[in-house]
Amino acid sequence: MVKILVAEDERDIRELIAFTLRFAGFEVELAVNGADAVEKAPQVKPDLILMDVRMPRMTGYQACAALMQIPEMQTTPVVFLSAKGQESEIQEGLSAGATQYILKPFAPDELIKQVKQILQQHGKA
Hints:
Blueprint: E1 3-7, H1 11-23, E2 27-31, H2 34-44, E3 48-52, H3 60-67, E4 78-82, H4 87-95, E5 100-103, H5 108-121
Parallel strand pairs: 1-2, 1-3, 3-4, 4-5
Helix pairs in contact: 2-3
């Protein structure tokens, strides 16, 4: 089963994403902020990490950069979830090591479609 780590500090959004992904048949692990995600990822060994950009303790960008320093995490795709769609924000995310950027708000079926596409592109589907 494909395992996805979701790092999102807002509980309602985190739960909605987890519900959506579990409904689609994915195994979901949750992190409450960037630092939590960096700590959990090597233990969980997810196939994909969905990460909010704006979080306390460590932003998504910082967490992504930290994950890319961990050898076994370097091939794990990181996808940012953000309400901020400016080109500069997207470039910052991609240069931190992210694979893709999904803008909030998104429809649950759209999220599932994009997650499946990313997993296929990385040979993890």
